[in-house]
Amino acid sequence: MREVATRSKAASHRLTQLDTDQKNRCLLAMAQALLDNRQAIQEANAKDLETAQEMKLSGAMVDRLILNETRIQGMAQGLREMAALPDPVGRELDRKERPNGLILRKVATPIGVIVIIYESRPNVTADAAGLCFKSGNATILRGGKEAIHSNQVIARLMVQAASACEPQFPAEAIQVLETTNREAIPALLSLTGLVDLCMPRGGEGLIRAVAACSKVPVIKHYKGVCHVHIDKEADLEMAVRVAINAKTHRPGVCNAMETLLVDRAIASEYLPKVATELAAHEVGLRGDSEVVSILQPLIEKQQLALKLETATEEDWHAEYLDLVLAIRVVDNLEAAIAHINHYGSGHSDAIITSDETRAQWFMRDVDASAVYWNASTRFTDGAEFGMGAEIGISTDKIGARGPMGLEELTSYKWLCFGNGQIR
To answer: What are the structural domains of the chain?
Structure first.
């Protein structure tokens, strides 16, 4: 691991010598290489799918592992989009001129060496490597055993294409760990002088394990317990539409709603409306006693075909990643904010209301990386935020927060211009 990290550190210094045009040409060459070598990618992916069967992975994990024609084209398109984005390196973030004539410029710089640890999805190899490269960072990729062949061939094709396109490209700028030994992770993440940052992408268990063993900074996103609060001043048709989208558009992703909070003043009118639509999408509900008292009679009268259970304390903490939704009736806006700040994961939360003052109150006091007024939580995404590709979503408060694109993969330094000033 020290040898791998040493090569990455050396490559990170060489990457600073590439200008924007050189980086963009490399990215376009990488994209074309993935398209030109579809067959090799799919042959490697077939080996990984055999391994997945032997490991008896879930259907969801196997689906994430598959690299079909559409997904290969998606990887290539992502690299092309990165080439079209502004270069984040060298941006002037601040400028000051001191009374003594000293000029200070705060400019964006690469972070250095970034370790990406992820599970199953080999398309992350292209996305992460491309984003790190465009932002001037060397990357060390550590995927799971189930995707080792796919990850290696994707990285190899990208390195070969960039090296052929640009002689100054350092081949060690993109490295995939050849070992799947778990001991490699703490060994790699102990190298504080060589590795600058780790970004784990996967389930809560993986992220907590990485954070516990790492001696280098880790950008974390444990889970997405996202809320939508239906305020007493909400447009109820909008409130149904947004809630249905937030829960059912893609229930297995981190920005999907997991808990719906409804103001008591409109609960008896709103809950039957939204429950009817949730039932049509086969969403099971976990409701508090007031939710049950409103909806259970409709179920018993066969006016509502819905699976409804009484919520437990664990349901308010749950990230279901499935067609299951917790619903709670709250006394007022203050109670909704208190619930979110107690049970939420700091990911994405929304309020539906026609009252701007109440919306501003919610947006000010809810502690999350993205807070919405009259919109679905499903928009917390790098592409939807206009960042192009995204390397992940951070729920940390120090450093990057929310969707992480190219700009979030940079640090900064001060450039100081003088003409002989002394202190």
So the answer is: 2-219+412-417 (3.40.605.10), 226-379 (3.40.309.10)
